[in-house]
Amino acid sequence: MNARDFKIRGQNFSFVTLALCAAILTGCATTNFANPPGVVRASTLPDLSGLAWVKDDLFISVHDAKRNSEKKHWPRVSLVRLPKSELEGVTWQSLDLEFPGPDGPSSDLESVSRIPGGRGFLFAESGQEGEGARRIFFAVYGNDTLKIESQIPWPVPIENVEATEVCQIGQQLVYLYAERAEGLAATKIKWATLSLHPLEFGPFKEVTYEGIDPVGKGARPIVALAVDNDGFIYSASAYDPGNDDGPFRSVAWRIGKVIADKNGNPLVQLGESKRLATLDGLKVESITVRESEASGKQVFVGTDDEHYGGIIRQLPSVP
């Protein structure tokens, strides 16, 4: 397999740093780093199509590798750690997951959702046309590993979902998702109650979200969703010109809140959208919130910049 296949780039490291990274990244997907003498890659981090905070400086990411002969060995789920020092940089480790069922490895994973109150995560295939893959996986994290415990087909028809999230209202888990709706003026945010054992969903309700920025051809109103412990909803919108060299553009938002209605049922209540950041030149495809006593509430985004690979960045403080 050629390293160029991964849409990843190498890093400007000294030989000492390269040796350190080789130790840190043991277990990452096999990659051929052969380059002309003196040439090193700017970053090895692949696309961050989905991102969820785990603990401390650790995140889980998913990658949109397709299920075909060329890409069957590409990384699909990884652990990503924030840098402790300038020398270390962001590190990542691909996980070798066993996907249950006859369909084999995932195809076009575009989102990962952290389940509140535990170490559970949901991974969702986008359902993109031509992929024939529409599954949701329930996995449990422990000791830097993940185990997929169950999977089900998407419970409703979908076209191309890049944004999912799990939150909690009272004692009830709630699952949210949105179609990316490329080129359309609006998309639907849909939600339903969620049970894990077995994995199943209640009836879905929906609300219309109007795209603000970017808009028009190539614009995707919602490509990522996150909900914090207070129920506030964060989203990302993105522009993709259809060229893997870009240029891209993205905006991160706070768009509303998940609340309990008068009967205690979950309700998505959209409000005036608050722009958190505009990211010119970057295609954000994931957003997550880190909440801890040490750091407070912090919003992180991950990108899928196609030929340029991916990055993870913290946004300015949430108002």
Characterize the main sheet: 5 strands, antiparallel
How many whole angstroms does the radius of gyration measure?
19 Å
Q: Shape, please?
A: globular
How are helices and strands ordered from N to C?
A: HEEEEEEEEEEEEEEEEEEEE
In DSSP terms, counting alpha (H) and pi (I) runs of 4 or more, how many helices?
1
The name CATH uses for the topology of the domain at 95-314 is Hemopexin
- Structural class, please? mainly beta
Percent strand equals over 45%
Helix and strand arrangement:
Blueprint: H1 15-24, E1 50-55, E2 58-62, E3 77-81, E4 91-94, E5 109-114, E6 120-125, E7 135-142, E8 145-153, E9 161-169, E10 172-179, E11 186-196, E12 199-201, E13 205-210, E14 219-227, E15 232-239, E16 249-260, E17 266-280, E18 284-292, E19 296-303, E20 312-314
Antiparallel strand pairs: 1-2, 2-3, 3-4, 5-6, 6-7, 7-8, 9-10, 10-11, 11-12, 11-13, 14-15, 15-16, 16-17, 18-19, 19-20
